[in-house]
Amino acid sequence: MEVKTYQDPQVYYEKVESLLMEEEALNNLPLGIAERLRSQPAKADLITLENGEEVVYTLIHTMRNQWVLPACDADDSVFQTAADFLFYNDYPVGGVVGEKKGATKLIHAYTKRSKRNNRVHMNQYVYRLDALQPINLGKGKLKVAGIAEKGLIASWLYNFGVETGELSIKDDADVLAERMVTAGTMHLWVVDNEPVSMVNQSRNTRNGATVNAVYTPDRHKEKGYATSAVWSLTKKLLDHGFQFCSLYTDADNPASNSIYKKIGYFPIGESVVYRFHTEL
Fold this sequence. Notes:
Layout: E1 2-6, H1 9-21, H2 28-39, E2 44-51, E3 54-62, E4 67-68, H3 76-88, E5 95-99, H4 100-114, E6 116-129, E7 141-144, H5 150-164, H6 167-171, H7 173-183, E8 186-191, E9 194-204, E10 208-215, H8 225-239, E11 244-250, H9 254-263, E12 266-279
Parallel strand pairs: 4-5, 10-11
Antiparallel strand pairs: 1-2, 2-3, 5-12, 6-11, 6-12, 7-8, 8-9, 9-10
Helix pairs in contact: 1-2, 3-4, 5-7
């Protein structure tokens, strides 16, 4: 087994595409990041484990984020090899996110090698939707967020990062708001000309689109606004030709999970986020 690193995002994408497309919806995160890096090159660590010409595993690390792992079958030796490569080559490992079984094997191998403590930051479900279920939309309408709402989006992203413990979102709220508004991906649910909830069209894969950053301020919660916003954006994406939509949820948040199931999303797998902290 050979470990390879790639500098060219296009070459990397061509190497890993067939592996990741075996489970396109489950691999929406690594596929979406790899796709984005092709069109918007940025500093990233792109690693594959290969048997001959066959890619059997891959890891992606963009700056200030955790390592992103795929959903694919792999022998235990693959996870040990990957962990050893990260450790002995002094790669920064603040955490990992990926399909639960594989991510757990990798984190255990790396923890044993590095003698560092890890913790589960979040257990997640990966959801997929192929067809919307009809619902009674609440009052209001969906609109694409504009420049005038950039400050509001930044403040909501900051609060979203605090609530979910995603420090990179909290710390980069202004940058993310600028990017989302400029790209036209951030949407607001508006009632009587007042934004009351937000939802973002995130990364795309060949056949699907991902929804994220679903947030409603406390004073507007429990009014069905998030449900209406997610339903409406999902419909927009399907109407634009995507075959399916996907999203991640906090497995320990029954309220959000019930919202997505009501709309027509169904769980297709489990993911987990591990974080490292103090040395042993």
